[in-house]
Amino acid sequence: MSLKLLVPIKRTPHRDSRIRIAADGALDTANLKYEVNPFDELAVEEALRIKESAEPFGGGELVVVTVGGEACHQQILAALAMGADRALRVDTDEPLDSAQIARCLAVVVERESPDLVLTGKLAYDDENGQVPAMLAEMLDWPQATQASSVEILDGGKRARVVCEVDSGLDEVELELPAVITADLRLNEPRYASLPGIMRAKRKPLDVMPLADAGDIGGGRARVLSYRELPPKPAGVRVESVDELIGKLQERKLL
Amino acid sequence: MAEHSDILIVIGPASSPVKKGDLAALGLGKAASEKTGGAFDALVLGPHAAEAAAEVAPHGARTVFTLDHPDLATYTAEAYARAAHAFLDGRTYRLIAAATSSSTREYLPRLAVRLDAPMASDVLALDDIALDDVAAGDGTATFTRAVFVGNLLSTVELSGALAIATCRASEFDPPETGAASPVEAVALSDASLAHPRKKFVSTSQAKTERPELTEAEVVVTAGRGTKGPDKGIPLAEELADLLGAALGSTRAVVDAGWLPNEFQVGQTGKIIAPKLYIAIGVSGAIQHLAGMRNSKTIVAINKDPEAPIFEVADFGLVADLFEAVPELIAKVRELRREA
Ligand SMILES: Cc1cc2nc3c(=O)[nH]c(=O)nc-3n(C[C@H](O)[C@H](O)[C@H](O)COP(=O)(O)OP(=O)(O)OC[C@H]3O[C@@H](n4cnc5c(N)ncnc54)[C@H](O)[C@@H]3O)c2cc1C
Ligand SMILES: Nc1ncnc2c1ncn2[C@@H]1O[C@H](COP(=O)(O)O)[C@@H](O)[C@H]1O
Prior knowledge:
Chain A is built from six helices and 15 strands. By secondary structure, chain A is of the alpha/beta class.
């Protein structure tokens, strides 16, 4: 039995970007550099490892999917260069909300019938953390979120997942197919090799018009504007532990 | 009977004593109901629902509903989403919200899909909520959220007759207490809420006598500068114990295996705003700042005067922590003795 893995990836501004706001409250995207959402990189890496470990029982296939415009091409190439086998892009330049994106992904899941969908736990830009759970509910699949370890059992029938939760670690077992979201400690993503980058350009990439996803509903969550944080009064440097204690006593904190 | 102007605050899995954050979420319920002219109810889920409801009852909800079921005994997102959904059958609300937690982050989006309602995560404030045309289900609710690793704020609008949100508890306060609201136990006829393909296996938590990060008024956070469990971590622990504080950590410290993951503060850890936050040997990476920048008073002890943590610190001490922290401990102890 061969294992089919699907990883939804999002194009997000580079993690070290200093984001500025345009006059109308929109993001100033003029000079932004983009990357694969850091948590999605972890998901791709984990899928690659699962695929590699599945070699003894039939191997696997890793498909990456993104919902977005042509600009996402670079991030698709990056995931293919890491080792994904092929890619699919649901083509749209519209700002879709989480439910609409989840709906698009659900359509892709129905077409591709993966055994496992591995996502990031959070998109680094809008930090919604909603798409994976919404997708799981739409499919009526079980989910495990904020995974710090994933173990595939019974030749791909089950997964045992350790999840980072507020109280510590929870371990759950899922019968596949299921949705699992990647947290930071899941792995250390590999760098693409030069041959990997060369091969990526020849790997299959399907573009699916948004219309082919059918009725994804109207967008009902939208960002009206962005703004800076309210300024915080500048702090002071204290010269000694005694001065620090004095300051804390003034604020009645000691 | 709930109406189009009413608000529901979901607490689950409920603990006893109730988490500070769950009580704070009731503050959002109250504020929202004042804007809509309705009332707010609480729905308390799980095996500790009855004890928790007794603590929730004085905080001004119209009714505190409790719901327990064998499939809620151990938490799974699938069962909690189904339980809340079953409760809502035949009940109408304008807004359903819960304090952000690792649990509500995963079952509220599932509930939103079940109810076909839009959702906003980890909101910092409710700016406005209205229902223009009840019959047509036309309404908008706008919220403030933190985005881009807490570096920007956004205004998000949810349209329709029902909105779903998780809220950042540190930005809300529990409503004042008064006469206890009626508590009503709800029974579900559903035989099963569990997802047939998911099984809870086990949970693990570090044993600690210290308060939890999200409950504490004072937090002492150890960064990589503490150099490990046999060096500076015990200093951070000693200071925490002296101040009755929770212990926090950076990602670097958790990755190094010096402290367990539940101590991590930041974008991928807990987002908190205690009265006093003391960062020791923490550089102040943006992902860490995202988890603590709203603390009321921030103290940083770091030997590098250029460390970004000083940009958010109210009081910054440029010093070697191995000298400054023992001195701080000794002097605070002395003050305590004098008092
Ligand atoms: C996607 C993503 C998510 C992340 N999420 C989080 C998160 O949730 N939380 C988090 O914390 N990080 C997070 N990080 C990691 C973050 O970028 C930093 O790497 C991390 O916060 C650094 O931890 P630190 O301050 O302990 O270590 P360092 O950056 O190594 O800083 C150590 C500090 O200690 C000081 N120091 C050293 N010796 C002494 C001494 N003797 N006395 C005084 N000071 C001393 C140094 O000057 C330095 O400033 C995330 C990163 C990514 C990419
Ligand atoms: N436009 C998108 N295309 C593909 N996957 C996405 C998209 N948006 C979000 N995701 C996936 O959902 C995860 C969580 O995103 P979010 O819910 O937006 O924070 C991401 O880490 C991705 O794996």
